[in-house]
Amino acid sequence: MVNLRDFDLNLLVIFKTIMEQRSISRSANELGLSPSAVSHALGRLRDMLNDQLFYRTAKGLEPTDRANEIIVQVEDGLAFLSNAISAQQQFVPATSTRVFSMQVADYVSGFFLPSFSSRIRQEAPNITIDIVPFSISADSVWDRVDVQIRLTPGRLKPKAVRSQRLMLDDVVVIMRPDHPSASEPMTAELYASLPHVKLSQSSTGTTVIDDALAERGLQRHSALIVSNWDTIPDLLMQTDMIAIVPSHLLSLDQRLKKLKAAPLPLEEVVFSFDLCWDKSSEKESGHKWLCETIVEVFNAQTQEVDK
């Protein structure tokens, strides 16, 4: 076992940087050190770990098998230490100028963001909320995004991230009240036969509807695919297309009150909305405040609908 009293933890920071940069000079520039200081630190690490760690190639430094083995533990350990220290630095919403990045599912952004923004302006007027689109993969953004409010099709919770369920909702089919099929019972066959306007898969991240129809030997015609929810209610009022929404949205979007709604005839399909975050940041005080605020605002909104 290494005696930590004799081990300089800064060496691990330098090791992690070299793994990222694959260059002594670029690592030195990143760390604000001289190349000779980085080379000296790497030499000390090689002696301590009894491994070359990196070898030179025409493309730059390449890690040894040993380096590849330990980098995950090094990154986890440094993240843990960083968060433990950050947790001691109290986050003060009223004076903070921090920037938080979020991904918000398009279905709920319309009713959530106005109330959330109002709350933020009262409690933390100097922070910035950056909304990042879901066109960026929902599973590979944790270096850019603090939290997600994410559509999770079905009842299962998201994998590989920390999550808290915000809402589990039924799905309804909507159309204009004088639609030619408005008076017909909504069956799976009728639903599949009508022209659909739907959110793009990059916006929702799911094909659950099409999968459920395929299991019944059915296929729908997506007449129009759009990138955001806001245009859909107006499109429905002027066409014979249909769409689906979470049932809670019927009471939260005034435009939907003018449309006819019927239960989606695919009983297994539900919409779950989850607050998700990466485990490495969950103990940091600003992050905890952000998550708690999101949950409180979301609960207030949905409880108002359920009254």
Automatic annotation (TrEMBL):
Keywords: DNA-binding, Transcription, Transcription regulation. InterPro entries: LysR-type_TF (IPR050389), LysR_HTH_N (IPR000847), LysR_subst-bd (IPR005119), WH-like_DNA-bd_sf (IPR036388), WH_DNA-bd_sf (IPR036390), YidZ_PBP2 (IPR037402). Transmembrane segments: none annotated. Gene3D superfamilies: Periplasmic binding protein-like II, Winged helix-like DNA-binding domain superfamily/Winged helix DNA-binding domain. Pfam families: HTH_1 (PF00126), LysR_substrate (PF03466). Residues 7-64 form the HTH lysR-type domain. The keyword Ribonucleoprotein does not apply. GO terms for molecular function: DNA binding; DNA-binding transcription factor activity. Belongs to the LysR transcriptional regulatory family. This is LysR family transcriptional regulator. The lineage of its organism: Bacteria, Pseudomonadati, Pseudomonadota, Gammaproteobacteria, Pseudomonadales.
